[in-house]
Amino acid sequence: MKSNKQRRQEIKAHRLRRIAQKARLINARPVDRPIGTVAVTPALLRPTNSYSIPDFVQRGYYQDRPFRCKDCGVEEIWTAAQQQWWYEQAQGDVWTVAVHCRACRQQERTRKAEARRIHLAGLTMKSASTGCET
Ligand SMILES: [Zn+2]
User: Fold this and answer.
1) Run of H or E including 58
2) Ligand 1: distance of its center to the CA of 68 in Å?
3) Could you report the average pLDDT of every consecutive run of 10 residues in the chain (134 residues)?
4) How close is the Cα of 64 to the center of ligand 1, in Å?
5) Phi/psi of residue 78, nearest 5 degrees
6) Would you call 56 exposed, middle or buried from its count of C-beta atoms within 10 A (0-12, 13-18, 19+)?
7) What's the gap in Å between 109 CA and the centre of ligand 1?
8) Model-level pTM?
9) Where does 8-85 show beta strands of DSSP type E?
């Protein structure tokens, strides 16, 4: 039987191997990338606890991604530039992808803003009538 110390060393060695492997995959940048794609800057991505690597990081560039809207079923393309914005500027989770078309997202934003406005107006009215401080 192995001692706890031996087991700990094994786990540590394994973990270091995994990290080195991950770094190798990320650093294996393709020299050429197709026209219309945008290069990925892994350092700008939001950190993830996952051991797997998203396909675009492994590939080294974002490419246009066609999808069908979950709500209205319209076909749309999530462009490479939009993906770069989502993952690198907006710090979106690297495992998320676009599922709603632009029109549906806009509609949902408007609906949420309106719901929030009504909710806050209701709270104001309630605190005014009960005299509670918020
Ligand atoms: Zn839609």
Assistant:
1) helix 55-59
2) 8
3) 89 88 66 87 94 94 96 96 97 97 96 97 90 61
4) 18
5) -90, 105
6) buried
7) 13
8) 0.67
9) 38-39, 61-62, 65-68, 75-78
Spacing, Cα 45 to ligand 1 middle (Å): 27
Query: Smallest Cα–Cα separation from 52: which of 30, 23, 22, 28?
Result: 22
Q: φ, ψ for residue 27 (rounded to 5)?
A: -80, -10
Q: Separation of 108 CA from ligand 1 center, angstroms?
A: 10
Give the length of the chain.
Answer: 134
Structure tokens of 54? Answer: 């998203």
Q: Tell me the C-alpha distance between 35 and 24, whole Å.
A: 25
Q: 70 vs 44, 63, 65, 66, 101, CA distance in Å?
A: 28, 21, 15, 13, 8
Cα–Cα distance measured from residue 42 to residue 54, given in angstroms and rounded to the nearest whole number? 11
